[in-house]
Amino acid sequence: MNAQFFLNHEALIRLGCFVAVLAVIVGWELRAPRRALSLPRVRRWPANITIVALNTLLLRLIFPTAAVGVAHLGQAQSWGLLNQWQIPPAVALLLGVALLDLAIYLQHVMVHAIPTLWRLHRMHHADLDYDVTTGSRFHPLEILLSMGIKFGVIAALGPSALAVMLFEILLNASAMFNHGNIRLPLALDRWLRWVIVTPDMHRVHHSVVMRETNSNFGFCLPWWDRLMGTYRAQPAAGHTGMTIGLEAWRDPRDAATLWGLLRMPFRSAAGPTMLDGGNRRLSEVTQRDDDD
Known about the structure:
This protein has one domain. It is 57% helix and 0% strand. It is built from 14 helices and no strands. Mean pLDDT is 89; it is low at 278-291.
């Protein structure tokens, strides 16, 4: 099988990977949860899953070509940095995936820093619990904005269609993994978070404490947080003691219902962003290497 085979069956392969990873994480959550849930799944999952279905439908209707289609066009037109040099295909593939992941990291920092964008993104953070469905819980307007940005990044970088396809699979799989309410041995987690964002690493980002919310922005590769000074090893209260969500959104009618999620960006002020002093560099805080 060659690269063209995977591209010809992109939609089926992506769906198969999504279903397989989702099944594994859900089973893992049921068998070895990291934290007790504050709300039963039957209260949270209907809204979260409906949001995923709605976002999928919107993307198909508004962006029918998807990101891989933009990459195909970019290659045909020689758009982007990676199409300007003769780079070995394997190196170009790895560079394409890594640079796309860096772009997602920077976008994530941006939506925390700009009040208008934080209004959209806070729906993701307002989940009162942290599990596999949280990883796909984004406001439809943010999803559309994110796809538009992704198209621009692909045009500017010029990654291959295969690199974009692999990145999309990795992004979806890693988002489900690192949002999973799953328990990993602490020794394994310390090693693993050097190569991929782990659930314990990313859970810090969903803390109600804003200086922790504004850290650990990576979704797949953990290196950007370490390089940019936004890495935080552990939450101050520990993983079993920390509070998930946002201070201003504790009512399940707002944070765990479809209508509450959809109207969240249009209610009240944007709230504090990382530009309001909610974030401090790693050197300014005491880091804990171990947790309960």
